[in-house]
Protein backbone atom coordinates (compact mmCIF):
# COMPACT_ATOMS: atom_id res chain seq x y z
CA UNK A 1 0.00 0.00 0.00
CA UNK A 2 2.80 2.38 0.86
CA UNK A 3 4.42 1.67 -2.48
CA UNK A 4 1.07 2.34 -4.22
CA UNK A 5 0.69 5.69 -2.45
CA UNK A 6 4.23 6.69 -3.35
CA UNK A 7 3.62 5.76 -7.00
CA UNK A 8 0.37 7.68 -7.14
CA UNK A 9 1.97 10.70 -5.52
CA UNK A 10 4.93 10.49 -7.93
CA UNK A 11 2.65 10.29 -10.97
CA UNK A 12 0.65 13.33 -9.88
CA UNK A 13 3.83 15.28 -9.27
CA UNK A 14 5.24 14.25 -12.67
CA UNK A 15 2.04 15.23 -14.45
CA UNK A 16 2.10 18.62 -12.84
CA UNK A 17 5.74 19.10 -13.91
CA UNK A 18 5.24 17.85 -17.46
CA UNK A 19 4.88 21.31 -19.07
CA UNK A 20 8.25 22.43 -17.72
CA UNK A 21 10.37 19.63 -19.21
CA UNK A 22 8.31 19.67 -22.40
CA UNK A 23 8.94 23.39 -22.82
CA UNK A 24 12.64 22.90 -22.20
CA UNK A 25 12.75 20.10 -24.77
CA UNK A 26 10.87 22.15 -27.37
CA UNK A 27 13.35 24.99 -26.89
CA UNK A 28 15.90 22.74 -28.59
CA UNK A 29 13.86 22.93 -31.80
CA UNK A 30 14.37 26.66 -32.08
CA UNK A 31 16.82 27.67 -34.85
CA UNK A 32 19.39 28.89 -32.32
CA UNK A 33 19.32 25.66 -30.30
CA UNK A 34 19.29 22.87 -32.88
CA UNK A 35 22.16 20.75 -31.60
CA UNK A 36 21.76 17.01 -31.04
CA UNK A 37 24.64 16.95 -28.56
CA UNK A 38 22.93 19.55 -26.39
CA UNK A 39 19.67 17.57 -26.49
CA UNK A 40 21.45 14.40 -25.38
CA UNK A 41 23.17 16.30 -22.55
CA UNK A 42 19.82 17.78 -21.54
CA UNK A 43 18.23 14.32 -21.45
CA UNK A 44 21.00 13.05 -19.19
CA UNK A 45 20.27 15.80 -16.71
CA UNK A 46 16.48 15.56 -17.01
CA UNK A 47 16.31 11.86 -16.10
CA UNK A 48 19.53 11.67 -14.05
CA UNK A 49 21.15 9.11 -16.34
CA UNK A 50 24.02 8.38 -18.66
CA UNK A 51 22.98 8.81 -22.27
CA UNK A 52 24.62 7.96 -25.57
CA UNK A 53 23.53 8.30 -29.18
CA UNK A 54 25.13 5.79 -31.57
CA UNK A 55 24.91 5.32 -35.30
CA UNK A 56 24.25 1.99 -36.99
CA UNK A 57 27.96 1.13 -36.97
CA UNK A 58 28.21 1.70 -33.23
CA UNK A 59 30.09 4.99 -33.38
CA UNK A 60 29.19 7.50 -30.68
CA UNK A 61 27.52 10.63 -32.08
CA UNK A 62 26.74 12.33 -28.77
CA UNK A 63 26.79 11.71 -25.04
CA UNK A 64 28.87 9.24 -23.02
CA UNK A 65 29.84 5.86 -24.52
CA UNK A 66 28.04 3.00 -22.77
CA UNK A 67 28.69 -0.76 -22.76
CA UNK A 68 25.78 -2.29 -24.67
CA UNK A 69 24.74 -5.69 -25.88
CA UNK A 70 25.78 -5.28 -29.52
CA UNK A 71 23.27 -7.86 -30.78
CA UNK A 72 20.42 -6.07 -29.03
CA UNK A 73 21.64 -2.67 -30.23
CA UNK A 74 21.88 -3.99 -33.80
CA UNK A 75 18.31 -5.31 -33.63
CA UNK A 76 17.09 -1.88 -32.52
CA UNK A 77 19.10 -0.05 -35.17
CA UNK A 78 17.90 -2.35 -37.95
CA UNK A 79 14.27 -1.88 -36.96
CA UNK A 80 13.64 -5.48 -35.97
CA UNK A 81 12.50 -4.04 -32.66
CA UNK A 82 11.60 -0.39 -32.01
CA UNK A 83 12.89 -0.28 -28.43
CA UNK A 84 14.28 -2.51 -25.70
CA UNK A 85 14.70 -2.50 -21.93
CA UNK A 86 17.27 -4.33 -19.80
CA UNK A 87 17.87 -4.52 -16.06
CA UNK A 88 20.92 -5.94 -14.31
CA UNK A 89 23.95 -5.17 -12.18
CA UNK A 90 22.06 -2.37 -10.49
CA UNK A 91 21.50 -0.53 -13.82
CA UNK A 92 18.35 0.05 -15.82
CA UNK A 93 18.82 0.47 -19.56
CA UNK A 94 16.50 1.67 -22.33
CA UNK A 95 17.31 1.48 -26.04
CA UNK A 96 15.18 3.47 -28.51
CA UNK A 97 15.50 3.51 -32.29
CA UNK A 98 15.83 6.98 -33.83
CA UNK A 99 15.14 6.92 -37.56
CA UNK A 100 16.27 9.51 -40.09
CA UNK A 101 16.32 9.77 -43.92
CA UNK A 102 19.63 7.98 -44.47
CA UNK A 103 19.55 5.38 -41.70
CA UNK A 104 18.91 5.00 -38.00
CA UNK A 105 20.54 5.65 -34.64
CA UNK A 106 20.17 4.09 -31.22
CA UNK A 107 19.48 6.24 -28.17
CA UNK A 108 20.69 4.43 -25.06
CA UNK A 109 19.78 5.65 -21.56
CA UNK A 110 21.24 4.03 -18.44
CA UNK A 111 20.23 4.98 -14.90
CA UNK A 112 20.42 3.55 -11.39
CA UNK A 113 16.69 3.93 -10.74
CA UNK A 114 13.90 2.13 -12.60
CA UNK A 115 12.22 4.03 -15.43
CA UNK A 116 8.95 5.51 -14.15
CA UNK A 117 6.34 7.08 -16.42
CA UNK A 118 8.00 10.50 -16.21
CA UNK A 119 11.43 9.20 -17.27
CA UNK A 120 9.90 7.02 -19.99
CA UNK A 121 7.93 9.95 -21.42
CA UNK A 122 10.99 12.19 -21.41
CA UNK A 123 13.08 9.55 -23.22
CA UNK A 124 10.35 8.87 -25.80
CA UNK A 125 9.76 12.52 -26.60
CA UNK A 126 13.48 13.28 -26.65
CA UNK A 127 13.97 10.50 -29.22
CA UNK A 128 11.32 12.16 -31.38
CA UNK A 129 13.05 15.54 -31.09
CA UNK A 130 16.41 13.99 -31.99
CA UNK A 131 14.80 12.35 -35.01
CA UNK A 132 13.44 15.75 -36.13
CA UNK A 133 16.83 17.39 -35.65
CA UNK A 134 18.70 14.67 -37.55
CA UNK A 135 16.17 14.83 -40.38
CA UNK A 136 16.40 18.63 -40.54
CA UNK A 137 20.20 18.46 -40.47
CA UNK A 138 20.33 15.92 -43.28
CA UNK A 139 17.81 17.86 -45.32
CA UNK A 140 19.87 21.00 -44.84
CA UNK A 141 23.08 19.13 -45.66
CA UNK A 142 21.46 17.69 -48.78
CA UNK A 143 20.41 21.19 -49.80
CA UNK A 144 23.98 22.45 -49.31
CA UNK A 145 25.34 19.54 -51.36
CA UNK A 146 22.79 20.22 -54.09
CA UNK A 147 23.64 23.92 -54.20
CA UNK A 148 27.36 23.11 -54.26
CA UNK A 149 26.88 20.56 -57.04
CA UNK A 150 24.81 23.03 -59.04
CA UNK A 151 27.47 25.72 -58.57
CA UNK A 152 30.15 23.26 -59.69
CA UNK A 153 28.05 22.40 -62.73
CA UNK A 154 27.68 26.09 -63.64
CA UNK A 155 31.45 26.53 -63.35
CA UNK A 156 32.05 23.45 -65.50
CA UNK A 157 29.79 24.88 -68.22
CA UNK A 158 31.64 28.20 -68.12
CA UNK A 159 34.99 26.42 -68.33
CA UNK A 160 33.81 24.47 -71.39
CA UNK A 161 32.74 27.73 -73.03
CA UNK A 162 36.09 29.30 -72.16
CA UNK A 163 37.86 26.62 -74.21
CA UNK A 164 35.28 26.96 -77.03
CA UNK A 165 33.69 23.54 -76.43
CA UNK A 166 30.18 24.87 -77.01
CA UNK A 167 28.75 21.46 -77.95
CA UNK A 168 29.68 19.90 -74.59
CA UNK A 169 28.60 23.05 -72.71
CA UNK A 170 25.14 22.86 -74.30
CA UNK A 171 24.82 19.17 -73.47
CA UNK A 172 25.72 19.74 -69.83
CA UNK A 173 23.38 22.73 -69.51
CA UNK A 174 20.43 21.05 -71.23
CA UNK A 175 19.60 18.87 -68.23
CA UNK A 176 19.13 21.63 -65.65
CA UNK A 177 18.65 24.76 -67.77
CA UNK A 178 16.92 23.73 -71.01
CA UNK A 179 17.37 26.30 -73.77
CA UNK A 180 19.85 28.45 -71.83
CA UNK A 181 22.61 28.09 -74.42
CA UNK A 182 20.45 27.62 -77.50
CA UNK A 183 21.21 31.16 -78.65
CA UNK A 184 24.23 31.80 -80.85
CA UNK A 185 25.34 34.94 -79.00
CA UNK A 186 25.46 36.11 -75.41
CA UNK A 187 26.82 38.84 -73.16
CA UNK A 188 29.12 38.28 -70.21
CA UNK A 189 28.86 40.45 -67.10
CA UNK A 190 31.22 40.57 -64.13
CA UNK A 191 29.87 41.88 -60.81
CA UNK A 192 32.25 42.93 -58.06
CA UNK A 193 31.42 43.17 -54.37
CA UNK A 194 32.95 42.53 -50.98
CA UNK A 195 34.04 38.85 -50.97
CA UNK A 196 32.04 38.30 -47.78
CA UNK A 197 28.87 39.32 -49.62
CA UNK A 198 29.51 37.41 -52.84
CA UNK A 199 27.37 34.35 -52.04
CA UNK A 200 24.36 36.55 -51.33
CA UNK A 201 25.03 38.56 -54.48
CA UNK A 202 25.25 35.38 -56.58
CA UNK A 203 21.99 34.10 -55.08
CA UNK A 204 20.28 37.38 -55.93
CA UNK A 205 21.64 37.20 -59.48
CA UNK A 206 20.14 33.73 -59.87
CA UNK A 207 16.81 34.91 -58.48
CA UNK A 208 16.76 38.11 -60.53
CA UNK A 209 17.63 36.37 -63.82
CA UNK A 210 15.13 33.57 -63.11
CA UNK A 211 17.56 30.80 -64.12
CA UNK A 212 17.77 32.29 -67.62
CA UNK A 213 21.44 33.13 -67.19
CA UNK A 214 24.56 31.23 -66.22
CA UNK A 215 25.66 32.61 -62.82
CA UNK A 216 29.10 31.54 -61.61
CA UNK A 217 31.17 32.50 -58.59
CA UNK A 218 34.45 33.47 -60.21
CA UNK A 219 37.11 30.89 -59.29
CA UNK A 220 39.92 33.41 -59.79
CA UNK A 221 38.64 36.55 -57.99
CA UNK A 222 36.96 36.16 -54.60
CA UNK A 223 34.71 39.19 -54.99
CA UNK A 224 33.54 38.52 -58.56
CA UNK A 225 30.37 36.91 -59.90
CA UNK A 226 30.29 36.04 -63.61
CA UNK A 227 26.96 36.12 -65.44
CA UNK A 228 26.56 34.87 -69.01
CA UNK A 229 23.19 35.53 -70.58
CA UNK A 230 21.63 35.40 -74.06
CA UNK A 231 18.82 37.76 -72.91
CA UNK A 232 18.92 41.52 -73.44
CA UNK A 233 16.84 42.02 -70.28
CA UNK A 234 19.66 40.69 -68.10
CA UNK A 235 21.55 43.99 -68.31
CA UNK A 236 18.61 45.81 -66.74
CA UNK A 237 18.18 43.09 -64.10
CA UNK A 238 21.79 43.39 -63.00
CA UNK A 239 21.77 47.18 -63.15
CA UNK A 240 18.81 47.38 -60.75
CA UNK A 241 20.52 44.88 -58.47
CA UNK A 242 23.70 46.98 -58.34
CA UNK A 243 21.66 50.09 -57.54
CA UNK A 244 20.41 48.46 -54.34
CA UNK A 245 23.85 47.39 -53.10
CA UNK A 246 26.54 49.88 -52.11
CA UNK A 247 30.09 49.16 -53.25
CA UNK A 248 28.90 46.77 -55.94
CA UNK A 249 29.87 47.27 -59.59
CA UNK A 250 29.14 45.57 -62.90
CA UNK A 251 30.99 45.51 -66.21
CA UNK A 252 29.53 44.00 -69.37
CA UNK A 253 30.85 42.79 -72.69
CA UNK A 254 29.48 43.43 -76.15
CA UNK A 255 27.49 40.63 -77.77
CA UNK A 256 29.75 37.73 -78.70
CA UNK A 257 29.30 34.22 -80.06
CA UNK A 258 29.42 31.48 -77.40
CA UNK A 259 32.75 30.38 -78.84
CA UNK A 260 34.14 33.78 -77.87
CA UNK A 261 33.13 33.57 -74.22
CA UNK A 262 36.77 34.06 -73.15
CA UNK A 263 36.94 37.25 -75.21
CA UNK A 264 33.65 38.46 -73.75
CA UNK A 265 34.92 37.73 -70.24
CA UNK A 266 38.02 39.84 -70.88
CA UNK A 267 35.83 42.68 -72.15
CA UNK A 268 33.61 42.50 -69.06
CA UNK A 269 36.64 42.66 -66.75
CA UNK A 270 37.93 45.67 -68.70
CA UNK A 271 34.52 47.38 -68.41
CA UNK A 272 34.45 46.62 -64.68
CA UNK A 273 37.59 48.73 -64.23
CA UNK A 274 35.69 51.65 -65.77
CA UNK A 275 32.54 50.99 -63.71
CA UNK A 276 34.46 51.60 -60.48
CA UNK A 277 34.72 55.27 -61.44
CA UNK A 278 31.19 55.69 -62.81
CA UNK A 279 28.43 57.22 -60.73
CA UNK A 280 25.95 54.51 -61.73
CA UNK A 281 28.59 51.82 -60.98
CA UNK A 282 28.02 50.14 -64.36
CA UNK A 283 29.88 50.11 -67.65
CA UNK A 284 29.76 48.26 -70.96
CA UNK A 285 32.88 47.51 -72.92
CA UNK A 286 33.42 50.37 -75.36
CA UNK A 287 34.06 49.24 -78.89
CA UNK A 288 36.93 51.25 -80.24
CA UNK A 289 39.14 51.11 -83.27
CA UNK A 290 41.23 47.97 -82.98
CA UNK A 291 44.26 47.60 -85.26
CA UNK A 292 43.08 44.30 -86.77
CA UNK A 293 40.00 46.05 -88.14
CA UNK A 294 42.23 48.35 -90.15
CA UNK A 295 43.97 45.48 -91.94
CA UNK A 296 42.96 43.55 -95.05
CA UNK A 297 40.72 40.81 -93.54
CA UNK A 298 41.69 38.08 -96.00
CA UNK A 299 45.40 38.81 -95.69
CA UNK A 300 45.11 38.98 -91.89
CA UNK A 301 43.40 35.60 -91.69
CA UNK A 302 45.96 34.03 -94.01
CA UNK A 303 48.81 35.47 -91.96
CA UNK A 304 47.27 34.23 -88.69
CA UNK A 305 46.83 30.73 -90.12
CA UNK A 306 50.46 30.73 -91.21
CA UNK A 307 51.73 31.87 -87.79
CA UNK A 308 49.75 29.14 -86.02
CA UNK A 309 50.45 26.47 -88.65
CA UNK A 310 53.05 24.62 -86.48
CA UNK A 311 50.13 23.62 -84.23
CA UNK A 312 48.06 22.15 -87.07
CA UNK A 313 49.74 18.76 -86.78
CA UNK A 314 48.29 18.26 -83.29
CA UNK A 315 45.03 16.34 -82.72
CA UNK A 316 42.08 18.71 -82.86
CA UNK A 317 41.20 18.53 -79.15
CA UNK A 318 44.83 19.02 -78.10
CA UNK A 319 45.26 21.99 -80.42
CA UNK A 320 42.03 23.60 -79.19
CA UNK A 321 43.07 23.06 -75.57
CA UNK A 322 46.49 24.63 -76.09
CA UNK A 323 45.14 27.63 -77.99
CA UNK A 324 42.32 28.28 -75.53
CA UNK A 325 44.73 28.14 -72.59
CA UNK A 326 47.20 30.41 -74.35
CA UNK A 327 44.48 32.90 -75.23
CA UNK A 328 43.47 33.21 -71.58
CA UNK A 329 47.07 33.04 -70.39
CA UNK A 330 47.94 36.08 -72.48
CA UNK A 331 45.08 38.02 -70.89
CA UNK A 332 45.49 36.97 -67.25
CA UNK A 333 48.09 35.56 -64.87
CA UNK A 334 48.81 31.83 -64.85
CA UNK A 335 47.12 31.51 -61.45
CA UNK A 336 43.94 33.27 -62.58
CA UNK A 337 43.88 31.31 -65.85
CA UNK A 338 44.25 28.04 -63.95
CA UNK A 339 41.32 28.86 -61.68
CA UNK A 340 39.09 29.88 -64.57
CA UNK A 341 39.88 26.71 -66.52
CA UNK A 342 39.80 24.41 -63.50
CA UNK A 343 43.37 23.15 -63.91
CA UNK A 344 46.64 23.69 -62.05
CA UNK A 345 48.88 26.64 -62.80
CA UNK A 346 51.62 24.17 -63.71
CA UNK A 347 49.30 22.79 -66.38
CA UNK A 348 48.72 26.31 -67.72
CA UNK A 349 52.45 26.98 -67.84
CA UNK A 350 53.17 23.61 -69.44
CA UNK A 351 50.63 24.23 -72.20
CA UNK A 352 51.92 27.72 -72.90
CA UNK A 353 55.53 26.45 -72.86
CA UNK A 354 54.53 23.91 -75.48
CA UNK A 355 52.97 26.60 -77.65
CA UNK A 356 56.09 28.73 -77.23
CA UNK A 357 58.27 25.85 -78.32
CA UNK A 358 56.16 24.97 -81.36
CA UNK A 359 55.93 28.59 -82.51
CA UNK A 360 59.62 29.16 -81.84
CA UNK A 361 59.06 32.27 -79.68
CA UNK A 362 59.51 33.56 -76.14
CA UNK A 363 56.44 34.82 -74.29
CA UNK A 364 58.65 36.96 -72.04
CA UNK A 365 58.76 39.33 -75.02
CA UNK A 366 55.72 41.64 -74.94
CA UNK A 367 55.79 42.11 -78.74
CA UNK A 368 55.71 38.32 -79.18
CA UNK A 369 52.70 38.08 -76.89
CA UNK A 370 51.03 40.93 -78.78
CA UNK A 371 51.52 39.24 -82.16
CA UNK A 372 50.35 35.81 -80.92
CA UNK A 373 47.37 37.51 -79.30
CA UNK A 374 46.52 39.11 -82.66
CA UNK A 375 46.82 35.76 -84.45
CA UNK A 376 44.67 33.94 -81.90
CA UNK A 377 41.88 36.48 -81.99
CA UNK A 378 41.98 36.56 -85.77
CA UNK A 379 41.54 32.80 -85.73
CA UNK A 380 38.49 33.14 -83.50
CA UNK A 381 36.90 35.32 -86.16
CA UNK A 382 36.98 32.34 -88.49
CA UNK A 383 34.39 30.78 -86.22
CA UNK A 384 32.13 33.79 -86.64
CA UNK A 385 31.36 33.17 -90.30
CA UNK A 386 34.05 35.39 -91.78
CA UNK A 387 35.28 32.68 -94.10
CA UNK A 388 38.54 30.77 -94.48
CA UNK A 389 41.96 32.18 -95.12
CA UNK A 390 42.59 33.49 -98.63
CA UNK A 391 45.45 31.65 -100.28
CA UNK A 392 45.88 34.51 -102.73
CA UNK A 393 46.96 36.70 -99.84
CA UNK A 394 49.61 34.25 -98.65
CA UNK A 395 52.46 36.60 -99.57
CA UNK A 396 51.51 39.06 -96.83
CA UNK A 397 53.71 39.15 -93.70
CA UNK A 398 53.28 41.05 -90.44
CA UNK A 399 55.40 43.95 -91.71
CA UNK A 400 53.08 44.46 -94.65
CA UNK A 401 49.96 44.15 -92.49
CA UNK A 402 51.22 46.80 -90.06
CA UNK A 403 52.54 49.15 -92.72
CA UNK A 404 49.16 49.83 -94.30
CA UNK A 405 48.18 53.52 -94.27
CA UNK A 406 45.16 52.98 -92.00
CA UNK A 407 47.15 51.07 -89.38
CA UNK A 408 50.07 53.48 -89.52
CA UNK A 409 47.78 56.47 -89.14
CA UNK A 410 46.03 54.86 -86.18
CA UNK A 411 49.35 54.04 -84.48
CA UNK A 412 50.79 57.54 -84.95
CA UNK A 413 47.63 59.15 -83.63
CA UNK A 414 47.53 56.86 -80.60
CA UNK A 415 51.16 57.25 -79.57
CA UNK A 416 51.17 60.91 -80.50
CA UNK A 417 48.97 61.61 -77.49
CA UNK A 418 52.08 61.15 -75.34
CA UNK A 419 54.25 63.68 -77.17
CA UNK A 420 53.10 66.65 -75.11
CA UNK A 421 54.42 65.17 -71.86
CA UNK A 422 57.77 66.87 -71.08
CA UNK A 423 58.97 63.78 -69.18
CA UNK A 424 59.27 61.86 -72.43
CA UNK A 425 56.77 59.27 -71.28
CA UNK A 426 56.66 57.86 -74.79
CA UNK A 427 60.32 56.85 -74.61
CA UNK A 428 59.79 55.31 -71.17
CA UNK A 429 56.81 53.33 -72.40
CA UNK A 430 58.69 52.07 -75.46
CA UNK A 431 61.69 51.04 -73.34
CA UNK A 432 59.45 49.36 -70.77
CA UNK A 433 57.70 47.28 -73.47
CA UNK A 434 61.07 46.34 -75.00
CA UNK A 435 62.19 45.19 -71.53
CA UNK A 436 59.28 42.75 -71.29
CA UNK A 437 57.16 45.15 -69.18
CA UNK A 438 59.82 44.90 -66.46
CA UNK A 439 60.30 48.21 -64.67
CA UNK A 440 63.68 47.28 -63.18
CA UNK A 441 65.25 46.37 -66.53
CA UNK A 442 63.74 49.43 -68.20
CA UNK A 443 65.09 51.64 -65.41
CA UNK A 444 68.62 50.30 -65.94
CA UNK A 445 68.40 51.09 -69.65
CA UNK A 446 67.08 54.62 -69.02
CA UNK A 447 69.27 55.36 -66.02
CA UNK A 448 66.32 56.19 -63.74
CA UNK A 449 64.62 54.62 -60.74
CA UNK A 450 62.18 51.73 -61.32
CA UNK A 451 59.44 53.66 -59.53
CA UNK A 452 59.87 56.47 -62.07
CA UNK A 453 59.26 53.98 -64.87
CA UNK A 454 56.10 52.72 -63.19
CA UNK A 455 54.83 56.27 -62.64
CA UNK A 456 55.43 57.14 -66.31
CA UNK A 457 53.61 54.01 -67.49
CA UNK A 458 50.77 54.62 -65.07
CA UNK A 459 50.43 58.23 -66.25
CA UNK A 460 50.22 57.03 -69.86
CA UNK A 461 47.17 54.87 -69.13
CA UNK A 462 44.53 57.66 -68.96
CA UNK A 463 46.10 59.42 -71.95
CA UNK A 464 45.98 56.30 -74.12
CA UNK A 465 42.71 55.15 -72.47
CA UNK A 466 44.21 51.71 -71.96
CA UNK A 467 45.36 49.59 -69.02
CA UNK A 468 49.06 48.92 -69.39
CA UNK A 469 50.34 47.58 -66.08
CA UNK A 470 47.90 44.68 -66.29
CA UNK A 471 48.90 42.50 -69.25
CA UNK A 472 46.13 42.05 -71.77
CA UNK A 473 44.52 43.40 -74.92
CA UNK A 474 45.20 47.06 -74.09
CA UNK A 475 48.94 46.51 -73.64
CA UNK A 476 49.16 44.41 -76.79
CA UNK A 477 47.46 47.09 -78.89
CA UNK A 478 50.00 49.66 -77.70
CA UNK A 479 52.81 47.21 -78.53
CA UNK A 480 51.37 46.74 -82.05
CA UNK A 481 51.24 50.53 -82.43
CA UNK A 482 54.96 50.70 -81.66
CA UNK A 483 55.61 47.95 -84.20
CA UNK A 484 53.54 49.79 -86.81
CA UNK A 485 55.57 53.00 -86.51
CA UNK A 486 58.84 51.09 -86.40
CA UNK A 487 59.79 51.96 -82.82
CA UNK A 488 60.12 48.31 -81.77
CA UNK A 489 61.70 45.38 -83.56
CA UNK A 490 59.27 42.87 -85.01
CA UNK A 491 59.55 39.32 -83.62
CA UNK A 492 60.23 36.28 -85.79
CA UNK A 493 58.02 33.17 -85.86
CA UNK A 494 58.73 29.63 -86.99
CA UNK A 495 55.60 29.64 -89.16
CA UNK A 496 56.50 32.80 -91.09
Q: What does this 3D model show about the protein?
A:
The protein is built from 19 helices and 11 strands. With 496 residues, the chain is α+β, with helices and mostly antiparallel strands. The chain has 3 domains: 20-141, Dynein light chain 2a, cytoplasmic (Beta-Lactamase), CATH 3.30.450; 184-287, Alpha-Beta Plaits (2-Layer Sandwich), CATH 3.30.70; 292-385 and 392-485, no CATH class. The N and C termini lie far apart (112 Å).
Percent in strands: 5-15%
Runs in which pLDDT lies below 50 for 5 or more consecutive residues are 1-18, 382-393
The pLDDT mean sits at 84
Which shape, going by the Cα principal axes? elongated
- Major pleated sheet: 6 strands, mixed
Which percent bin holds the helix content?
40-55%
**Which H/E pattern describes the elements?**
HHEEHEEEHHEHEEHEEHEHHHHHHHHHHH
Q: Quick one: how many beta strands? A: 11
Radius of gyration equals: 34 Å
The N- to C-terminal Cα distance equals: 112 Å
Number of helices: 19
Going by helix content, strand content and strand pairing, the class is alpha+beta
Number of domains: 3
Amino acid sequence: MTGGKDTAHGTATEAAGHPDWARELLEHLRPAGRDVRRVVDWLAGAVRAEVTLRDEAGATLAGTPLPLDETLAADVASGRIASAAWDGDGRHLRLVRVGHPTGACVLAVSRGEPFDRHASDVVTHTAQVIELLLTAHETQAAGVRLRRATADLRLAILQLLMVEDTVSARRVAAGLWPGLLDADTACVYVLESDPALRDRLAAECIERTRDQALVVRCPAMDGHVIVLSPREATAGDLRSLVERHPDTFVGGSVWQSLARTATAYGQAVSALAVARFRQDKTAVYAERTHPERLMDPAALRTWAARVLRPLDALPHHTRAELLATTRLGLEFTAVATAKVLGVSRNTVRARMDRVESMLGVDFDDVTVRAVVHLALHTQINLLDGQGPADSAASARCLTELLSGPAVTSWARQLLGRLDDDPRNVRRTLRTWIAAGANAERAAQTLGVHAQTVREHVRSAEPVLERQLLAAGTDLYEVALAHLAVGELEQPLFAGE
